[in-house]
Every structure is written in structure tokens, then in C-alpha cells.
Amino acid sequence: QVQLVESGGGLVQAGGSLRLLCAASGRTFSNYAVGWFRQAPGKERDFVAAMSRIGSIYYADSVKGRFTISRDNAKNTVYLQMNSLKPEDTAVYYCAADENLSWTRLQRDEYAYWGQGTQVTVSS
Questions:
Q1: What is the pLDDT, as a whole number, of residue 26?
Q2: Euclidean distance between CA atoms 124 and 110, whole angstroms
Q3: How far is CA 93 from CA 41, 49, 79, 109, in A?
Q4: Residue pLDDT tens, the chain, 124 long
Q5: What SS3 state is found at 67?
Q6: For the chain, does the N or the C end have fewer beta carbons within 10 angstroms?
Q7: Angstrom distance (rounded) from CA 29 to CA 65
Q8: Which residues pair with 20 in a beta bridge?
Q9: Is 30 left (phi over 0), alpha (psi -120 to 50) or beta?
Q10: What distance in Å separates the CA atoms of residue 20 and residue 92, rounded to the nearest whole number?
Q11: Beta strands 77-82 and 113-114: pairing type?
Q12: What three-state secondary structure class fits 89?
């Protein structure tokens, strides 16, 4: 079993940056697909970014060019660097991991393991 804990959220002004971290414990997830999702109040949980088991990276159109997903397998940590933040980026951000998820399903809410979420608030 893999346990995920997000951190790095907070309050930032529009145009600012935040770096989210997702620390994994239990098994090493060097060969896991990993992803970031977010959920704003009253809305569905939406895909943000993902990395396949072989390192292919995918972004939602709304964040492409502004957000960067990366991982450090030696530290069992996944990162989401968020730049040029907008008020519409305000949400609870979740990291996720799965050892078997197909690359065709990375943008779907089907990962086996999820963190508890970290709040990101962007003021205008």
C-alpha cells in the first residue's frame, strides 16, 4: 500500500507561484503513474497533470505552460510547480498514484491511491 501526503498549499496573489509536494510512504512508487487533480467548491474533481510509468507527461489545457509536474524517485516525492497563478486555480489539490493505470486513463478519476488534499487559494 502507498500512502500520499500533500503539502505546500497556501494563499498567494494572482501571478504568484506555489510548489506543491506529495510525499509517498510505504512502497517505493518509482514505477507508478502519478497525477495531480483539483476540486473547487461545488465542482467536480478535475485533472491537472500526470506522469506515466515511463515518464510521459500530460497537462490539462487550462494549466499547460504554467504548471510543471516532476518527481524525485530517490525521495519518493512528486512535485507540482505552479506559476502565473490565477483566481480560477483556487481549489483543493490532490496527488494520486497507481501502479497499473493505463496511459489512456491518466486524466480520469481512477487512481488507486490518493492524498488528503492541500488548499490553494489565489487572490485577485
A1: 79
A2: 33
A3: 12, 11, 12, 13
A4: 789 999 999 999 999 999 999 999 977 778 899 999 999 999 999 999 999 998 999 999 999 999 999 999 889 999 999 999 999 999 999 999 999 988 899 999 999 999 999 999 999 9
A5: strand
A6: N
A7: 26
A8: 80
A9: alpha
A10: 11
A11: unpaired
A12: helix
Rg (CA), the chain: 13
Using DSSP bridges, classify how beta strands 33-39 and 45-51 pair: parallel, antiparallel or unpaired.
antiparallel
pLDDT of residue 28: 75
State the maximum Cα–Cα separation within the chain, in Å, rounded to a whole number: 40
Q: What confidence score (pLDDT) does residue 31 get?
A: 86
Question: What pLDDT is recorded for position 2?
Answer: 87
Nearest in space to 119 (alpha carbons), one of 14, 18, 16, 2: 18
For residue 111, what is its C-alpha cell? 487512481
The whole-number pLDDT of residue 46 equals: 97
Report the length, in residues, of the chain: 124
Rounded distance, CA 28 to CA 34, Å?
12
Q: Which residue has the cell 530517490?
A: 74
Question: Which grid cell is 21?
Answer: 509536494
